[in-house]
Amino acid sequence: MGDRLLVLVRHGESEWNKKNLFTGWRDVDLTEKGIAEARAAGRKLKAQGLRFDVAFTSVLVRAQRSLDLMLEEIGQQNVPVFKDQALNERDYGDLVGLNKDDARAKWGAEQVHIWRRSYDVAPPGGESLKDTAARVLPYYIQDMLPRVLRGDNLLVSAHGNSLRALVMVLEHLSPQEIVAREIATGVPLIYRLNADSTVAESRELAA
Length: 207
Prior knowledge:
The radius of gyration is 17 Å and the shape is globular. The relative contact order is 0.22. The longest helix is centred in the C-terminal third of the chain and has 21 residues, at about 130-150. The two termini are about 30 Å apart. Helix 2 crosses helix 3 (about 60-75) and helix 4 crosses helix 5 (about 110-115). Helix content is about 45%, strand content about 15%. Strand 2 (about 55), helix 3 and strand 3 form a beta-alpha-beta unit. It has 8 helices and 6 strands. A 6-stranded mixed β-sheet has the order 3-2-4-1-5-6. The protein is α/β, with parallel strands linked by helices and about 210 residues long. It has a single domain (about 5-205), classed as Phosphoglycerate mutase-like (Rossmann fold).
């Protein structure tokens, strides 16, 4: 039996992160800083002596490229990779492509804050965090968790909100706690699971 490790990493800074735009499912690439963040995450994981049996990512290029860069730094480019839109970022609907300051000017700071930081209120045409969790968690339970419980070590490169859905379950956080939880770009979150899927140990590989 292996270590039953689940390692979650939010992709490095994207071009739209840098421009302060709502990104959602829009497919944008990493910035130079984002590339550096992903490589640094890979080096941190390698320094821990971690090896992975399988990797998971979304269908969006910023998460896939971050994963490729991490695996390159670890020296494990041949790890099987599964890509699924279940792990995509939250869909921000009508907010996608808007500068966050422009969105505040249009709808008001309080309304935009509610859309961004409430658990179950969705922006127009988009998903709430609750909606995002409703697609992430079944995929986790059906496709990812069984591998961890068999002893595989999993590396997951995804997005702030799709990862929040996983962290909420792993850390038993309330809806109020999870929306306040910041998940930094390029910072690995390491969970070692018990045989019953509960978390035995967790740590963050901060800079």
